[in-house]
Structure formats: C-alpha cells, structure tokens
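Incident log, entry 3
Record: Peptidase (234 residues)
Problem: checksum mismatch between cached and fresh output.
Input:
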Amino acid sequence: MTSPIFALFDPTYFLVIIGLVLSMVASGYVNSTFRKYDQYRSRSGVTGTDAANYILQHSGINDVAVTQISGNLTDNYNGQTKVLSLSQSTANSTSVAAIGVAAHECGHAVQDATNYAPMRIRTAIVPLANIGSSLSFPLILIGVLLSFNQTLIHLGILLFSLALLFQLVTLPVEFNASHRALKILGEGGVLTQEEVPMVRKVLTAAALTYVAAALSTFLQLLRLVLLFGGDRDN
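Fresh output:
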C-alpha cells in the first residue's frame, strides 16, 4: 500500500500548479488591463464616486452609503451593512477604468436591491463554503493517517466540493454585475460609445480572475478525487 507521505507528493500535484499558474496569469492580466485604461480620462469628467452615486440614484437605491477605503482595487459591496466601499485608486479617479470598477460594485448593490437569485444563493452558501474549506484537508489528512479511512476521506472531499460550488455560483453574480453596470453607464451618457468597450475590457479581465479561481478549485478537487476518491484495496 502506498504510504501517506508518498501520496502527498503524488504527480497529480501538477494539477495544483496549473491552477496556481492560471490564477497568477489572470491576476497579472487584470492588473495590466486596469493600469492601461486607468490612463484614459473619461470625457464626462466624473469620478468613480460620482459614477457610483449616479448608478445608485438611477436604480432608485437610497439606503446604500458610498465610502472611501485605503488600498488599491480593494473595492467591495457589503450587503449586510449596505455600504459600498471604493478604494483610493477608484473613488477620486476620473479614468474609465476607475469608473468601471465603481460601477461593477454598484452592480452588486443593484442585485441586492432586486433580490437577484444567484447572489442570494451565494450569500446562503458562504458559511458552508467556509466550513468546507476549513475542515476538508484536516479530515482528509486524518483519514490518510488512519490507514486510509474512506469515510473521513470522502467526507473531506465532499466538504471541499462546497468551495467549488461557491466559486461556480460566484461566476454569474460577477458577470451580471458588470452587465448591469455597463448598461446603466452607457444609457446614461456617463460613458461615450468609445469608452464603453474600454470599460468592458477592464471588467472582463476582472471576471477572468473568478474563472481562474473556479478552475483552480476544480483542479484541486480533481486531484483529491484521483488520489483518495477510490477504494485503496482495489
């Protein structure tokens, strides 16, 4: 029987390496794309904060506060506190990239206000995904050390699959938020016809990071199944 130590260094570890490379490439691409279009000032002259306030007002959302936080591309929307936080690189910038990022986060606020189903599902499974991420590997490791206890190993793999489920549900949420933002900005005249494709490229690059994260998680799950998913006696 293969020893537990050897199993941890199985060649399938290359699946994890591929996932890490995909995530690094996606992260590098979104950063380079943002820097490129951060050099283009919007013709309207509005800042990221202005764009956010416009979208919220246009969507009839009056209970969301727009605040500024430190950092670079740390923008986020908190549905529990109803706070849309824009990073310094976004809030005061008039670049098309900054407007796009701010608009994307507003897209989440619009989803929240309209009870967008995938967003509700994602919020509901966050606790389960966190539990799965925390307990999956310890359970698998314990199962391996206990002479490949299949019950513990399979339970660990099942818990890890919750992380993949979260990643998959996140994809439509992120793509939809960008779609809503672009539509409002384009129709409202905040962006010109020439600027809309620029913002679309920025938001597409950002969305690819979520795709890469889902692929990376899938590859990790595949590795666990290949290593421990079968019957060790066969």
